[in-house]
Design brief:
heterodimer; A: 153 residues; mainly alpha; Butyryl-CoA Dehydrogenase, subunit A, domain 3; 73% helix; 0% strand; globular; B: 407 residues; mainly beta; Neuraminidase; 5-stranded antiparallel beta sheet; 4-stranded antiparallel beta sheet
């Protein structure tokens, strides 16, 4: 049932760990991952709660909230064209490398290659077209491979 | 370079914190409140511990109030434990024997299992056609029957005589209200209809009243969840506990004179008790920096079990109904869920999530039993067969051996 806390707990129980880790990959910041996840689920209890597909709704809300916070931080820092600025200084190679992708590339890569969503599902979560998702995945993947090769090398 | 999928699996090493308590807190906040900062410090610490394991607690609100049948404990013995496993309902004897899957609903998920007060039937919710519907089966799993039609059911509770069930559901575009239905599936009607959100109906032991939570609507109403009661035959709900903090999880004492609940007054949740007429409220616990919730009375009404989250993990506690004898039953390095009391009062059962190196979002719990003094803990299932905190202990009439189902 829409919006019931119990249905939502079930989504949380099934999907919470995967969502949190995806948000961690996206933001590089465990605090922000926790914050975005908690806020997304809390909003799903509210008047704008989803009437169906609660799980997808929560993913979309969580990524939107996390992206909003990254944007706010980037504005605060007033940095210019280095897209890696958005993520916090990360304690692992993987998170650091992910942080060098653009926000949209990073979201698409994580949702597709880590969370296992199809490009169509990723498009629904990010609110963009599947063509845009494919472009971000393609560009992000190429860039990520290069970055990881450098890391490994 | 390792394959991209494989490389991204490194994220699995990070242990997510349990943010559900925070979700509930925010879900009930008035619109003018900002986002609490409580999460700020836990993330980094968890990150440092990341490679350890997934010791996640996925809080599952499920099962309060299964021991409230007003029968003398001496005439009741312990039947089987029922719990929700991956997608289906399972039963197991309290010695760990006879574990089996009870339901097979063709791919439909079943959860929130509650034995009927006489132990002859099981009620649970089933995911069908985009919503949860309330089903009953016989104790052996036969004859699954939908008793609520297409209305989506949230929380529910048996009436003490087993003739009815109370539940919360949404009708139309509204919020959750309280309904009742006969166990045969007839006579479905609303008991509470309001523009607010009602949760967790709990039937008084004499069957005349239902206690429930009334939540403000997020981003619309000020205030916090409160506890109300309403007569079975309608009338205006009566506020029972309406503090400025969170008041949730009403649990009637077996004699119906008191109600235990969880209340947040000074930054964390403690267990309180109040007389059924709203008088004589007192705080039973005062755990520093821990949220105590899910109170459950022992069948003789002398003790109350509950769980508390200390910022790291959930532990199971008991306290005497007068506030003495506070005891942490499970001081282990794992997450322990809230307990159900054995019908004879001599054991408690709970599910716990053992910290392991595995990464697995489902079936992370096993079922345990322990004596109320904290001794004799036993893990009675293995292989992490349980999905969450959802657990119910079958009462069996000790004078009628035929009511015990065969294993």
């Amino acid at each position: 049932m829409a919006g019931s806390s119990q249905e939502l707990e079930r989504v949380y129980r099934k999907d919470g760990a995967r969502l949190w880790r995806s948000l961690l990959g996206f933001t590089g910041d465990p605090d922000l991952a926790s914050d975005a996840m908690a806020e997304a689920f809390a909003q799903a209890l509210g008047p704008r709660r989803p009437v169906k597909d609660q799980d997808r709704w929560v993913w979309r809300a969580a990524f939107r909230i996390a992206a909003g916070e990254l944007k706010r931080r980037s504005l605060q820092r007033s940095l210019t064209d280095d897209r890696s600025y958005e993520m916090a200084e990360s304690p692992t190679d993987l998170l650091r490398v992910l942080g060098r992708l653009s926000t949209k590339q990073r979201a698409a890569i994580i949702l597709h290659f880590y969370a296992g969503y199809t490009t169509r599902q990723v498009a629904a979560i990010l609110g963009v077209t599947t063509g845009t998702v494919r472009m971000h995945i393609s560009q992000g993947r190429r860039r990520l491979r290069r970055l990881l090769e450098n890391e490994d090398g | 370079m390792a394959d991209l999928n494989e490389r991204l699996r490194e994220l699995d090493r990070f242990e997510p914190p349990d943010v559900w308590p925070e979700v509930e807190r925010r879900g009930a906040r008035p619109p003018h409140e900002g986002v609490p900062s409580r999460l700020r410090h836990i993330g980094v610490a968890l990150l440092a511990l990341a490679i350890a394991a997934v010791g996640i607690t996925f809080a599952v609100r499920a099962f309060e109030g299964k021991e409230r049948t007003p029968r003398p404990a001496s005439t009741v013995s312990n039947g089987k434990l029922a719990f929700s496993g991956v997608g289906q309902i399972y039963v197991v004897s309290s010695d760990g024997s006879g574990l089996r899957q009870l339901t097979d609903l063709g791919g439909h998920d079943a959860l929130d299992v509650h034995w009927s007060p006489d132990g002859s039937k099981l009620a649970f919710r089933v995911w069908t056609k985009g919503d949860y519907e309330l089903f009953l089966t016989n104790a052996d799993g036969s004859d699954p029957t939908n008793v609520t039609g297409s209305i989506g059911v949230s929380e529910f509770a048996w009436s003490p005589d087993g003739s009815m069930l109370a539940f919360t559901a949404v009708q139309g575009e509204g919020d959750l209200d309280v309904f009742v239905v006969n166990a045969e599936g007839t006579g479905l009607r609303s008991v509470v209809e309001s523009p607010l959100t009602e949760h967790r109906p709990e039937w008084s032991p004499d069957g005349t009243q239902i206690a429930f939570e009334r939540w403000p609507v997020y981003d619309r109403d000020p205030g916090t969840p409160d506890i109300y009661t309403v007569g079975l035959h309608g009338g205006e709900p009566v506020p029972l506990v309406t503090s400025s903090g969170w008041d949730t999880g009403a649990a009637w004492s077996p004699d119906g004179t008191r109600i235990a609940f969880s209340s947040e007054r000074d930054g964390d949740k403690e267990i309180h008790v109040v007389n059924a007429d709203g008088s004589g409220e007192r705080e039973l616990t005062d755990l520093p920096r821990a949220d105590a919730t899910r109170a459950a009375w022992s069948p003789d009404g002398t003790r109350i079990s509950f769980v508390a989250h200390d910022g790291e993990q959930w532990d199971l506690w008991v306290v005497n109904a007068d506030g003495g004898g506070l005891l942490k039953l499970t001081p282990r390095d794992r997450d322990d869920g809230p307990a159900v009391w054995a019908p004879d009062g001599n054991l408690l059962a709970f599910t716990a999530s053992q910290v392991t190196g595995d990464v697995d979002n489902t079936g992370t719990y096993d079922v345990y039993t322990i004596r109320p003094d904290g001794t004799g803990e036993r893990r009675i299932t293995s292989g992490r067969v349980a999905m969450g905190w959802d657990l119910s202990w079958q009462p069996v009439d000790a004078t009628d051996a035929t009511s015990t189902p065969s294993p």
